[in-house]
């Protein structure tokens, strides 16, 4: 297997470059990311379709990862209950070293070949769920060995990797390989590979939430009212969607119902406020 993510950077003598030169070159490399993702959109669609199917049938999704990719998946998952009003536990993260140690960067846990499967067992993983492994190299032992166990137990798996023909892809039903080549800093996969991962997490979670009916038009009609900004946005959304003109009346209804979708359903029911 060719590990392009570990090949030397094509940029030399970085310490001799000016700020302007450094950011120009980083930006040049970053521009490769979206183009690389575009090449594998069919693979991404297949993965998302599989996730949608499992969740519609009452299953759960588990991101599985280490390092930068694992930590980025935590950021994606924790946003979903507030943004789309889904219950906690529908989208989860199995992070090497534990999500509770998110900020400690326990990189040595990448070599733990048992923890990932043990964590999934504690969550009562089953074939109704789906696991998405994340690894820039495509060889991370923590992810690879966990996916092997998932396959043994007929649990559907997807993966996101940064090298072609990786072992992790071999043990994935829905592999996604986004190839962006050597990093700006040799081997620093928190850069382009991290950007790929963030963009794919956005695609996966956003598309699945839309497909699950958590969005109307282009608006977050199931967002939870956790602060004044969200109350205001939800109030204005309700006014647009239902043709209301009285802001305070709409706000009162939003606060009573809890989100835009419930407020719209209330209005359509013909009940008195």
TrEMBL record:
Top-level taxonomy: Bacteria, Pseudomonadati, Bacteroidota, Bacteroidia, Bacteroidales
Pfam families hit by this protein: GKRP_SIS_N
Keyword ATP-binding in record: no
GO biological process: amino sugar catabolic process; peptidoglycan turnover
The SIS domain, residue ranges: 51-214
Keywords: Carbohydrate metabolism, Lyase
The keyword Acyltransferase belongs to this UniProt entry's keyword annotation: no
Gene Ontology molecular function, alphabetical: carbohydrate derivative binding; carbon-oxygen lyase activity; ether hydrolase activity
Protein name per its UniProtKB record: N-acetylmuramic acid 6-phosphate etherase
């Amino acid at each position: 297997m060719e590990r392009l993510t570990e090949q030397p950077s094509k940029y030399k003598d970085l310490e001799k470059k000016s700020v302007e030169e450094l950011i120009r070159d980083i930006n040049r490399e970053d521009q490769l990311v979206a183009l690389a993702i575009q090449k594998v959109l069919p693979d991404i669609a297949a993965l998302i379709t599989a996730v949608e199917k499992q969740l519609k049938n009452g299953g759960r999704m588990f991101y599985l990862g280490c390092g930068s990719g694992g930590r980025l998946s935590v950021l994606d998952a924790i946003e979903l209950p507030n943004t789309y009003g889904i219950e906690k536990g529908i989208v989860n993260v199995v992070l090497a070293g534990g999500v509770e140690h998110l900020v400690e960067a326990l990189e040595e846990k990448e070599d733990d070949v048992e923890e990932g499967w043990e964590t999934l067992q504690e969550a009562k993983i089953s074939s109704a769920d789906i696991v998405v492994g994340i690894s820039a190299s495509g060889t991370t032992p923590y992810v690879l060995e966990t996916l092997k166990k998932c396959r043994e137990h007929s649990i559907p798996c997807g993966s996101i990797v940064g090298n072609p023909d990786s072992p992790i892809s071999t043990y994935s039903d829905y592999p996604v390989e986004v190839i962006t080549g050597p990093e700006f800093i040799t081997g620093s996969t928190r850069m382009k590979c991290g950007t790929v991962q963030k963009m794919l997490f956005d695609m996966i979670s956003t598309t699945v939430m839309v497909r699950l009916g958590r969005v109307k038009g282009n608006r977050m009609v199931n967002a939870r009212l956790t602060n004044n900004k969200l109350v205001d946005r939800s109030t204005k959304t309700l006014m647009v969607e239902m043709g209301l003109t009285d802001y305070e009346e709409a706000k009162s209804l939003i606060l009573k119902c809890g989100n835009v979708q419930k407020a719209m359903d209330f209005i359509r029911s013909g009940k008195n406020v």
